[in-house]
Write a structure and sequence with these properties.
Helix content: 40-55%
Radius of gyration: 20 Å
Strand order of the largest sheet: 4-3-2-1-5
Largest sheet: 5 strands, antiparallel
Number of strands: 5
Oligomer: single chain
Number of helices: 7
Shape: elongated
Length: 156
């Protein structure tokens, strides 16, 4: 397995897609039930293959990721050739960007001496989707990129 297995909730959400996947493997609903009982390791393998297929599809379309912690924002734009980063660091120890109050403070003070910015870019390794997945594993979430684009206009 290349990525991670989808959660139970994700499988439930993708129920129809999973049925279609099994159909492409020529596995009927009845055969799937039998496979789970008699060859659980083979059923697990099918779940893993399906998970990887879903991840590949999602990762190939991801354009923006965000990882926001108490006093840091890491905003990524994932272009065809490289990963671009806008990093924001809050120097005020009383601020937590994950809260409404903290983010409100940031919006009012984003140009103050209590906020530092850094931009960087990095080429992908041989496996672009794995690079994206690694960022997600480290806590990044997929977004539409509104924050990244806003900052890009301000500091670009």
């Amino acid at each position: 397995m290349k990525y991670s297995r989808l959660s139970k909730e994700q499988f439930e959400e993708l129920h129809q897609e999973f049925i279609n996947f099994l159909a492409t493997q020529s596995i009927t609903a009845e055969e799937w039930t039998t496979l789970k009982k008699e060859k659980p390791e083979a059923a697990e393998e099918e779940l893993d293959v399906f998970s990887d297929l879903i991840w590949e599809g999602v990762l190939s379309k991801v354009k923006y990721l965000e990882n926001i912690s108490e006093r840091h924002m890491h905003l990524f734009e994932l272009t065809d050739k490289e990963m671009k980063l806008i990093s924001v660091k809050i120097l005020n120890p009383e601020i937590d960007l994950r809260t409404k109050v903290g983010f409100g403070w940031f919006k009012r003070n984003f140009q103050s001496d209590f906020v530092e910015y850094l931009t960087a870019s990095k080429a992908y390794t041989d496996d672009k989707n794995q690079d994206k997945f690694d960022l997600i594993q480290q806590g990044a979430t997929i977004t539409k990129g509104e924050l990244y684009q806003w900052f890009d206009e301000i500091i670009g």
